[in-house]
Write a structure and sequence with these properties.
By secondary structure, the chain is of the alpha/beta class. The protein has helices spanning 39-42, 81-90, 108-119, 138-149, 169-182, 193-205, 212-217, 220-237, 249-260, 271-275, 278-281, 301-312, 351-360, 366-380; strands at residues 4-13, 18-26, 29-35, 48-51, 56-59, 61-66, 71-72, 75-76, 93-101, 126-132, 154-158, 185-189, 241-243, 265-269, 317-318, 398-408, 427-437, 440-443.
Amino acid sequence: MSSRTVIRGGLVITASDEMHADVLIEDGRIAALAASGTPAAEAWTAERIIDATGKYVIPGGVDAHTHMELPFGGTFAADTFETGTRAAAWGGTTTIVDFAVQSVGHTLREGLDTWHAKAEGNCAIDYAFHMIVSDVNQETLKEMDLLVGEGVTSFKQFMAYPGVFYSDDGQILRAMQRSAENGGLIMMHAENGIAIDVLVEQALARGETDPRYHGEVRKALLEAEATHRAIKLAQVAGAPLYVVHVSAMEAVAELAKARDEGLNVFGETCPQYLFLSTDNLAEPDFEGAKYVCSTPLRPKEHQAHLWKGLRTNDLQVVSTDHCPFCFVGQKELGRGDFSKIPNGLPGVENRMDLLHQAVVDGHISRRRWIEIACATPARMFGMYPKKGTIAPGADADVVIYDPDAEQTVSAETHHMNVDYSAYEGKRLTGRVETVLSRGELVITEREYTGHAGHGTYTPRSTCQYLN
């Protein structure tokens, strides 16, 4: 049985084009586009007609950095794959790339199998995996080759969190050398964790225990130093590098310099660094704990440098690093000791809307919005043009977006499984109205019509900026 949907009368926006066009969907894929009102478009018939007059028709968002059900700091991220992917759909995201975790002493395969078991049959939208590499040894390096062969083509390493995820420079170099051979992409959490631990210990000894000190000890210079070191190690290895959650202007400068030298170095930032600051970390009565994440929020003056990096393409992607912990019972683990506050913020539902607000505010163009939120993450992680665009042959992951609707962000109305919003009370212009994933309605005029198990695992090719 063939199923057909026509989306009529909207402004189709991709990373490269804007056009008033109708979109024909057949059997879960984009079949054709035609200028609205032309005989070609008028001739299309379908069981389902969606009127998008006055609305944007955009590709579903690709969030390349989420942590559903992540074990961290003696607890677990509050969103399951079921609740997290449903919330993502509400926010106009139709694909997530989550992080499977290798524990020290275990194989990559064991970690990947564990994450497949968490996700399978539970996701409302499509999903893929990166692999966190915590234990570099000869067997791990061989496994990296096998994983690239089966569509897990990116590997995350940590210069932070000694004793948990941390890799030293030698381990990082070995993994980078391997990725240079097998086509994988190393993703780096670039903070000098060894130095940070010293500063944490000293701050606590001085009685500096409030959440704001989390930001003060994780210094911007230690993010910049680690970013510089990761770039040089990648250069020695002849490998590409993707630096995750860039928050500091000094780190952006390191990326810009490397890119000016022609290196295959890429950078991601997140909405929290674009819209929040150390002012939030300093909120009284332990409220600042809601904003504890790593890399940490920076003083407001860093924001202009991040926006500029997004405009100049020194930063290419905006992902969420969605890793929610409830204020009650989870963030509270760190009362009296900021180092025990679980690191992470909820955001998978807010990213597309916040970035549309950035369009309204004049920070970026409409096409750049789609580029940094849909097309580039899909290309970076080997899913384009299946994901990230509206073009014949692409998966019919399509969002009908109302650019004029007004909303106020609140934990009372969001769908993430967490008891607060990092953007509580923020007024935004623009809102998701309808979402299709592979041609199936997941959100229908602000009603959830999807179901757990619709989302399928998506193997990925290698980074498409290196071909």
